């Protein structure tokens, strides 16, 4: 008989599909799965919007091919971070907002906009746009991501190993990203040598921690 085994039954009735043991075990360990899931939506809102904003920032590093390459790695890895955590939101009975505006508004980090106004013709006013200003936006976006995923690690440590594993993987890459942009900004703005100390990614946006076991070729 299943109920004679230690874990054969629990707080969710057999056959009850309205509740998830995967969420209840987290609650039993002191974390509110609803609160966690909403935090995750905010966090991946920031990953998704940053993926968008980095597309724009990267383009405006015109002629700085090495900077563009690094920004491309960070950009693609933010998409990987978004995709890594989306399934977790649904496992915790949440969903992505239907309206992308709602999703962007609740992102847990500021918009990483190109630091110059738009001009009258609908493009950016690039006259005073400096490379170092773009690098500073990139650096501060990475720092916000580090703070965000550190908070998720704190919330889940010892209570939700699955979310913790995702958050610490992302955090590993965000710390790489901060180091990259510290190196680039130090050189560009201050003419200082401040090495990130990292080797190049194998492929653009390799995401060695968050894509080391891709679900399929498109992941
Ligand atoms: Fe990220
Ligand atoms: Fe990042």
Number of strands: 0
The secondary structure category is mainly alpha
Number of helices: 6
What's the story with the biggest beta sheet? none
Descriptive account of the structure:
The protein has about 220 residues and is mostly helical. Helix content is about 55%, strand content about 0%. The chain has 6 helices and no strands. Helix 2 runs antiparallel to helix 5 and helix 5 packs antiparallel against helix 6. The longest helix is centred in the last third of the chain and has 30 residues, at about 160-190. The relative contact order is 0.14. The structure holds fe (ii) ion (2 copies).
Which tags fit this structure?
single chain, binds fe (ii) ion, 219 residues, mainly alpha
Briefly summarize what is shown.
By secondary structure, this protein is an all-alpha fold. The chain contains six helices and no strands.
Give the arrangement of secondary structure elements:
Elements: H1 21-28, H2 33-59, H3 65-91, H4 100-105, H5 131-156, H6 161-190
This protein binds fe (ii) ion (2 copies).
């Amino acid at each position: 008989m299943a109920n004679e085994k230690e874990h054969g039954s629990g707080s969710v009735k057999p056959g009850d599909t309205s509740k998830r043991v995967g969420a209840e075990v987290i609650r039993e360990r002191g974390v509110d799965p609803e609160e966690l899931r909403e935090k995750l939506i905010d966090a991946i809102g920031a990953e998704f919007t940053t993926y968008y904003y980095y597309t724009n920032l990267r383009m405006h590093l015109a002629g700085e091919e090495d900077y563009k390459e690094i920004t491309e790695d960070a950009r693609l890895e933010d998409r990987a971070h978004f995709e890594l955590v989306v399934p977790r939101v649904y496992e915790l009975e949440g969903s992505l907002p239907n309206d992308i505006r709602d999703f962007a508004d609740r992102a847990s980090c500021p918009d990483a906009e190109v630091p110059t106004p738009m001009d009258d013709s609908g493009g950016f006013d690039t006259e005073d746009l400096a490379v170092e200003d773009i690098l500073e936006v990139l650096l501060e976006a990475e720092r916000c991501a580090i703070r965000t995923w550190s908070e998720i690690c704190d919330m889940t440590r010892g209570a939700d190993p699955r979310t913790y594993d995702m958050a610490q993987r992302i955090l590993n890459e965000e710390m790489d990203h901060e180091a990259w942009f510290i190196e680039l900004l130090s050189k560009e703005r201050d003419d200082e040598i401040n090495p990130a100390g990292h080797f190049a990614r194998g492929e653009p946006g390799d995401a060695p921690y968050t894509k080391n076991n891709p679900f399929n070729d498109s992941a």
